[in-house]
Every structure is written in structure tokens, then in C-alpha cells.
Design a protein that fits this description.
The complex is a heterodimer of chains A (250) and B (468).
Chain A (H helix, E strand, L loop, with lengths): L2 E11 L2 E12 L3 E5 L6 H9 L4 E10 L2 E2 L5 H7 L1 E4 L6 E5 H10 L10 H14 L10 E2 L5 H15 L3 E5 L7 H13 L6 E6 L12 E6 L2 E6 L2 H9 L2 H8 L1
Parallel strand pairs in A: 3-10, 3-11, 6-9, 9-10
Antiparallel strand pairs in A: 1-2, 1-4, 4-5, 7-8, 11-12
Helix pairs in contact in A: 3-5, 5-6
Chain B lengths: L23 E2 L6 H10 L4 H16 L23 E2 L13 H9 L2 H8 L2 E6 L2 E7 L1 H5 L3 E3 L1 H7 L1 H4 L13 H9 L5 E4 L9 E6 L6 E2 L2 E6 L4 E9 L7 E3 L2 E6 L4 E8 L5 E11 L4 E8 L4 E4 L2 E4 L5 E10 L4 E10 L5 E10 L4 E10 L7 E10 L5 E10 L5 E10 L2 H9 L4 H17 L4 H15 L5
Parallel strand pairs in B: 3-7, 6-9, 7-10, 8-11, 9-12, 10-13, 11-14, 12-14, 13-15, 14-16, 14-17, 15-18, 16-19, 17-19, 18-20, 19-21, 20-22, 21-23, 22-24
Antiparallel strand pairs in B: 1-2, 3-4, 5-6
Classes of the chains: A alpha/beta (250), B alpha/beta (468).
């Protein structure tokens, strides 16, 4: 029950099959990493689990603490406790970060109830301080004109404020310099706890030096083809993906 | 300051109707007799009747502007419209004296409440005439005049006759001619030199009767160094047949005066809203049109400023929202007629479903002028793939001592934006609303607080059911 459990998941976009029976279980308290070559379906997995309307699920199951995710609206999945940190966070001009996060928090309350402004800002500022974000950020339009690093910090800020049960970080390291990578990773590490499962999707081993995973999975052509400990990431860094692809085919 | 729960206005708010008896009814259709009837009921001076009859001739001669405007104008049937309906009462100075059916209407629209909270004066027009008109007493003592058009022309001709029909000549267009022939109601306002009103004056225009035409006439004169903000709101019940609203609004800002004219147009979707609005700005005067069009079937409105005096400033800030079955054809006219005059136009439109929004802008700067500046920004947001927007800028700049800047953009709310926001827990409609509110956010801030709250709510309501 206490896990994000994906079994034999199959999904396609515009009749092109991408996930070919993917099985993976992320219990609370663990950090899992998925690595894999470009085009292996890593980001598709993140979007399918979040309920992206462009993808069609053709088989298998995905359950969050025993609740079926497949077929739910993205906002319903979010409210069940799944958070996706986007590879490319969308820009929403005119909507301030503070108002957006507040609206997201309010969406989790009963109708008519609202978060208290004073408590909200106190909490928001604490998390911003941790992430080294200037307080002026609260009034900036969401991701509008942000640098790559600012966008990723803003994702982690939202993740901290929404207190999800499961986090999926999709290529969070892309476009970050070392300093930003450290700050973002620290933010994720602060969220590690026995009540939360984390899935880190990455192309490079570099991120996993900062966010040390309990398990590393290798994804090739829409399936997990190998699972190991954190040392598997190093092996992939040294040897590339070709040997695994060949093994997978063989 | 007012909280959202106190300004309870939505698109359906005006959609109700009380049966009303009218003492004066000009009947159906338009003729010289109808015009004579209106003038007689109003007990007007002969020059006003002459003005009306000449305007009627002009109206008959002028063709419909369908060579550039929408063909939908042809669906207006002038022969089935009722041009004058009134209860024959003088506007009351207290709400208690207003007849019950009319009072109930305005109470339901929240007008007396708003008056108590933040207004310096209110005029509430019901079909052809004002049912209620009152201004704070201290303003009367300072010499401020806030009356209807009939009273303005009759009691204060020395002030109003000079400018009446001068900013917008009768022959400006077919609908300004029609208004000049049958006008009734509206606000005539005079602010004496140096008087600065701390609170706004408000007019509320209500159409109650079916097949009715409302033709209010407004003239605001701000004398030297004075300041005034005027706000107007409008609603009508939704009838099966079309209703015509055709106002003429003239503003005169004398040397150093400031006028802000705020409109929240929320007509029901059967109203043809064809309005001519123009201001004259003398030396160092400033006129701002702050305009929001959410209702009506077709709105054609291009508020203008004639920048007649040196260093005069003109501005149009406009938001238009066109939903299914609506065409918001709006814009601005800036006529530079003196050195160092500046104008600014910011227009944002949102098209939802099969709604269509058009921007028409006119900027004129003759070559003999120096140091004039215009800045125009018009941005359109499309919500659905069948939504429509178009832009028709007409910019004439001569000489080399003036500058003009025009920026335009069209964007669409993307499915990825909505997915992103939904992933954080927002429902699809809420996400869409937030995007739209974000798009117009900077302009909504230009409206008085009491209206900006209402506008956000109106936009949220329009967005419901627009997704999918």
C-alpha cells in the first residue's frame, strides 16, 4: 500500500507505442533513479503517471498507495500526492509565483476554505531562504523570463510547499551549473523522509552524486532492463548505454 | 474599500426583468413625429428640437458602415425599436422616492450600496430617463454640476451649449446622428476650475424593456486644473430580440484638467452596443479612457482623444472579452493637434469559443508638429482553436520630429500550460482563468479597486465551461 506501484505499464502517443510493459515500485522512504538513453521513454513515464492528456494508456496499472492513477485528471493525481518537477517548466505570464502556489494550496482544501496569508508567506519565505531565492521572486510571473536555474529552483520551491507523497524529478539537472545543481539537490535531499518516495529521472550520473539514490534503474525502449544500487550509475557513466542496450536485445 | 462579496456582479446578474408601466411611450419605429414627441415630453427649448430634426435627416442619409464594419449591423431593424420609454418622473433625490419596480432593479444590481460605500454621486438611468440622481452636498456647494442631459441643456445652457455636439459632430457617423436625434438621459457634468473630486461619480445604465433603444448623451466639462473620475456600468435582461444601445459621450478637459472615464460594459448578449466616445484635451490636460467590454452581441467603440493643446496627454486602456456569439470591435483614436502631445494605447482582448475580437486603432500626427509621441500595444489571447482576433491599425505620421511605436501580439493558452498548472492541483477551468487573469492583470490594476475585483470575478465566470 505504501508505495507508488507501476506494473506492466504500456502507453502510446498518437498511436506510437512508447512504454512497453514497465514495472517499478517506489516505496515510501526510498529514492529511486531512472537512467537511460535519449528516447527511451523516461519523460513519457513521468507524464503518463501525471495524467497528461496526450498519452493513451494501453495496458498495465499504476497505483499510488493503493489508489489507481490511470484515467484520473492531472489535478486529481496532484491532489492524491504526486508531484512532477518538469524538465521544461511552463511560463505563465501575469501570474505571480506566490499567487500560483497559493491557488495550488487552496485547491487542496475544502471548498470555501483558504490558506491563511500570514502562515503561507512565513512558510514560503522559509523555503525560499533555503533555496537561496530572493524574496522579490514571489511577485514575479511564474517562470516568465527565468533562467534555467531559476526555473528549477522554482520547481523545488513548489514541491516543498505542496508537501507531496511522491516526487518525480524529470531531468532536473539539465541546464544547471554546479552551484545551482547543489542548491537544487540540497532542496531535494531536505525532502527525503520515511513518508515520501522520490523518483529521479536523469540522463547523467552527475546529479546522483548529489542526490544519492537507493536504487538505480536503467530504462531502454520503454522498459526497465536492469536494476542495481548507486554503483550502477557509475558503471553507466564509464561504459555508456550501448552494452545494456545490447544485453536488453539479446 | 470593498470586498468581493460586496460587489456581487456577474454576467447573469442583470438578467432579470420587472413588469413596468410607462407613462410616456413614443411607440415603435422612428419618425419625425417620434422626435417631436420626445422633445415635447421633455419640454425642450426650440433649438434642441431643431438640433434633433437636423440630426434625423443626417441619420437617414448616412449609409450603414458595412463597407468596413461587420455585416451584422444589417440585422438591426430600426422599425421595431422603441425609442423613448419613461415613467414621467423627475429623477428622485432619495431612493425612497424611486418607484418600487425601478428601485428593486437597482437594489438588485447593488447600486445604492455602492453609493454609500465609495461614490461622490450617482445617477441611475432606467430605459430613457434617470430614476435617481444625487450628489454629495458639499460638491454642490463647490459648484459641481451633475445632472441629466435634459436638465443640463435647459437649466445650464450657458455652460453646456457651447460644447454640446462640438467634440462629436452629429454627422460623425450614422449612430452619432441617431443618438443626436433621439438622445435621452446620460450625464451632464461640470467641474469648476481647480476642484478635484476625491471620489468618483457614477452612472448606471439599465435597459429594462424589450425591443428598446437606449440613447444616453453624456457631456463632461472639466474646467481648468480640475480633476474627475467618472464610472459607468450597464446591464440589460436577455431578451430573444435585439436591443440597441447607442450613446454619445463627449469629454472636454480644459487647461491642466484631468478626466478619467471608466466603463464596465456588461450588456446581455442580445444588445448592439454602438457607442461614440471622444474627448478634447487642451493644454497640459489629461484624458484617460479605461474601458472593459465583456457583454453585448456586437460592440463597436473606439474612444478617442483630440490632443488640441500643447503637452496634452491621452490614454486608452482597454480590455475586451468575446465569448460565443459575441464580437468586440474596439479600439482607440488619437488625434495629435498640438506640439509635445503624447498618447498611449494599451489594448488586450480575449477570444473564447467562437468569440471574435477586433482592434481598430487610429493615430494621426501631422508634419508641422514637433515632439509628439504615441505608443500603442495591442495583445490578443485566443482560448480555443475556433476563437478569432483581428487588428486594423491606421497610423498616419508626418514630419520627422514625432515618434510612434506600435506593438502587437497574438498568443494562445497552450495545453502544456494548462497541464502544468493542473499538475499542481488546479482544475482545468481554474487554470484557464488564472492564465486569462494573468494576461490582463496589469490592465485590471488600472481600474478602481471596486471594479477590479468585480472584473476578475466576471472573467472567472466567463471562463467556466470554456474548456474542453
Amino acid at each position: 500500500m505504501n508505495s507508488l506501484k507501476i506494473a506492466n505499464l504500456q502507453a502510446s502517443i498518437e498511436d506510437k507505442s512508447i512504454l512497453h510493459g514497465l514495472t517499478l515500485e517506489i516505496p515510501k522512504g526510498e529514492v529511486h533513479a531512472i537512467m537511460g538513453p535519449n528516447g527511451s521513454g523516461k519523460s513519457t513515464l513521468a507524464k503518463v503517471l501525471s495524467g497528461h492528456p496526450d498519452y493513451e494508456v494501453t495496458g498495465g496499472s499504476a497505483d499510488l498507495d493503493g489508489e489507481n492513477l490511470l484515467g484520473l485528471e492531472p489535478d486529481e493525481i496532484s491532489k492524491l500526492g504526486l508531484f512532477l518537477a518538469f524538465q521544461y517548466p511552463m511560463e505563465v505570464p501575469g501570474v505571480s509565483i506566490a499567487n500560483f502556489i497559493r491557488a495550488a494550496r487552496n485547491s487542496r482544501l475544502d471548498e470555501g476554505e483558504k490558506v491563511k496569508a500570514v502562515d503561507f508567506y512565513k512558510e514560503l519565505y522559509e523555503h525560499m531562504d533555503e533555496l537561496g531565492m530572493d524574496r522579490k521572486f514571489t511577485s514575479r510571473s511564474l517562470n516568465d523570463g527565468f533562467s534555467g536555474g531559476e526555473k528549477k529552483r522554482c520547481e523545488i520551491l513548489q514541491m516543498s510547499m505542496l508537501n507531496p507523497k511522491y516526487c518525480i524529478l524529470d531531468e532536473t539537472d539539465s541546464g544547471l551549473d554546479i552551484d545551482a545543481l547543489r542548491i537544487v539537490s540540497d532542496g531535494v535531499n531536505r525532502m527525503r523522509n520515511p513518508d515520501r518516495g522520490i523518483l529521479v529521472i536523469t540522463h547523467y550520473q552527475r546529479l546522483l552524486e548529489y542526490i544519492i539514490p537507493d536504487f538505480v534503474h536503467v530504462m531502454v525502449e520503454g522498459k526497465i532492463v536492469r536494476t542495481g544500487g548507486k554503483e550502477l550509475a557509475l558503471e553507466l557513466e564509464e561504459r555508456g548505454y550501448d552494452w545494456i542496450k545490447q544485453e536488453a536485445v539479446a | 474599500m470593498i470586498s468581493p462579496s460586496q460587489v456581487e456582479v456577474d454576467r447573469d446578474k442583470g438578467n432579470f426583468h420587472y413588469e413596468t408601466d410607462y407613462s410616456f411611450d413614443a411607440g415603435v419605429g422612428l419618425s419625425e413625429d417620434v422626435i417631436r414627441y420626445i422633445s415635447e415630453v421633455k419640454n425642450e427649448d426650440p433649438w434642441v428640437l431643431d438640433f434633433r430634426l437636423k440630426a434625423y435627416e443626417t441619420f437617414l442619409k448616412k449609409p450603414m458602415p458595412t463597407h468596413w464594419a461587420t455585416e451584422d449591423l444589417k440585422n438591426i431593424d430600426f422599425d421595431i425599436i422603441r425609442y423613448y420609454l419613461a415613467k414621467g418622473q423627475q429623477p428622485s433625490r432619495t431612493w425612497d422616492e424611486v418607484p418600487d419596480d425601478v428601485k428593486n432593479t437597482f437594489e438588485r444590481l447593488g447600486i445604492p450600496e455602492q453609493e454609500r460605500k465609495f461614490l461622490a454621486g450617482v445617477e441611475a438611468q432606467f430605459d430613457s430617463e434617470a430614476a435617481y440622481s444625487r450628489m454629495k452636498e458639499d460638491l454642490e456647494k463647490e459648484g459641481v454640476i451633475f445632472v441629466g442631459s435634459t436638465e443640463g441643456l435647459k437649466e445650464h445652457p450657458e455652460i453646456f451649449r457651447k460644447w454640446f455636439g462640438k467634440v462629436i459632430p452629429t454627422s460623425d457617423n450614422k449612430f452619432s446622428a441617431l443618438n443626436s436625434a433621439v438622445f435621452s438621459g446620460g450625464s451632464f457634468i461640470y467641474i469648476p476650475p481647480g476642484v478635484k473630486l476625491a471620489q468618483p461619480l457614477q452612472a448606471y445604465f439599465r435597459i429594462n424593456a424589450e425591443n428598446f433603444g437606449q440613447f444616453e448623451r453624456t457631456l463632461i466639462i472639466a474646467d481648468e486644473g480640475s480633476e474627475v473620475m467618472y464610472m459607468e456600468g450597464c446591464t440589460a435582461p436577455k431578451f430573444e430580440t435585439s436591443t440597441l444601445h447607442s450613446a454619445v459621450v463627449e469629454l472636454v478637459a480644459l487647461k491642466g484638467a484631468k478626466i478619467q472615464y471608466v466603463t464596465v460594459q456588461n450588456w446581455s448578449n442580445n444588445v448592439f452596443n454602438l457607442v461614440t466616445k471622444r474627448a478634447l484635451a487642451q493644454e497640459e490636460a489629461e484624458v484617460r479612457w479605461i474601458d472593459c467590454n465583456i457583454g453585448s452581441r456586437l460592440t463597436m467603440k473606439y474612444p478617442g482623444v483630440i490632443l488640441r493643446g500643447r503637452k496634452a496627454r491621452g490614454e486608452v486602456v482597454s480590455i475586451a472579452l468575446a465569448n460565443d456569439g459575441q464580437h468586440q470591435d474596439t479600439g482607440a483614436k488619437m488625434v495629435h493637434a498640438a506640439d509635445e502631445t503624447t498618447s498611449n494605447v494599451v489594448s488586450k482582448s480575449i477570444s473564447i469559443g467562437e468569440g471574435r475580437s477586433s482592434y481598430r486603432g487610429l493615430v494621426q500626427m501631422p508634419g508641422h508638429l514637433k515632439g509628439c509621441k504615441n505608443n500603442t500595444e495591442c495583445d490578443a489571447l485566443l482560448i480555443n482553436s475556433n476563437s478569432q482576433t483581428d487588428t486594423y491599425p491606421a497610423i498616419t505620421v508626418q514630419g520627422d520630429a514625432n515618434s510612434v511605436q506600435h506593438e502587437a501580439s497574438v498568443s494562445k493558452v497552450s495545453a502544456e500550460q494548462i497541464f502544468y498548472m493542473q499538475q499542481r492541483g488546479l482544475g482545468e477551468a481554474e487554470a484557464m482563468s488564472l492564465c486569462v487573469n494573468g494576461f490582463v492583470n496589469d490592465l485590471i490594476r488600472e481600474f478602481p479597486m471596486e471594479y477590479s475585483v468585480e472584473l476578475k470575478r466576471l472573467i472567472d465566470l466567463e471562463m467556466e465551461g470554456s474548456v474542453g
